[in-house]
């Protein structure tokens, strides 16, 4: 259950019944996605200031990453065999899964990458970075070279400027 109070004209204060683990904003800027420690993924409509339906995750969610180009969300789930799930926020369903990385003790974050976010990348507790095809879920490569757990990854985005 989420409560909010309006302090200023555009400022909102939300109160959650459990600890917030992570949050993201949808690509259209209209939804706030919040991971709570009770395993729920809450979606708040920022225009109406109301909580929408939760995404039904049954396993502990460690982190999320919202797409910048579509209404999709990467959800890192830590259980016996860690998995990253790609959720379609409009359809409220899982459209792909990515497996192979290691996660048990630490928060390991994932991200979208490449042209039109065609890749999913993730750190791993085995000191490597994993890269999958976003559409097909196939593992494309594993990058070595780190001495310890890779907790976070980012794929740089460039804007082309013509001079």
Structure description:
The protein is globular and about 45 Å long. The N and C termini lie far apart (52 Å). The chain has a four-stranded antiparallel β-sheet with strand order 3-4-5-6, with no helix packed on it. A four-stranded antiparallel β-sheet has the order 7-8-9-10, with no helix packed on it. A hairpin with a 5-residue loop joins strand 7 and strand 8 (72-77). By secondary structure, the protein is mainly beta. The protein has strands spanning 2-6, 12-16, 20-25, 31-36, 41-45, 50-51, 61-66, 72-77, 83-88, 93-99, 110-113, 119-122, 129-133, 139-143. It is built from no helices and 14 strands.
Short key terms for the protein model shown above:
single chain, 163 residues, mainly beta, 4-stranded antiparallel sheet, 0% helix
């Amino acid at each position: 259950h989420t409560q909010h109070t309006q302090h200023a004209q555009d400022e909102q204060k939300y109160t959650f019944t459990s600890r917030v683990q992570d949050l993201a904003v949808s690509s259209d800027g209209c939804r706030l996605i919040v991971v709570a420690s009770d395993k729920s993924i809450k979606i708040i409509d920022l225009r109406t200031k109301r909580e929408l339906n939760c995404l039904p995750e049954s396993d502990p969610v460690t982190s999320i990453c919202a797409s910048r180009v579509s209404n999709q969300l990467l959800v890192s789930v830590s259980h016996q065999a860690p998995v990253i799930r790609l959720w379609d926020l409009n359809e409220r369903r899982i459209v792909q899964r990515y497996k192979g990385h290691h996660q048990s003790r630490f928060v390991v974050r994932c991200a979208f990458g490449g042209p039109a976010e065609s890749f999913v990348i993730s750190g791993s507790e085995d000191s490597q970075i994993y890269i999958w095809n976003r559409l097909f879920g196939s593992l494309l490569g594993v990058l070595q070279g780190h001495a310890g757990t890779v907790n976070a990854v980012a794929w740089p985005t460039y804007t082309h400027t013509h001079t």
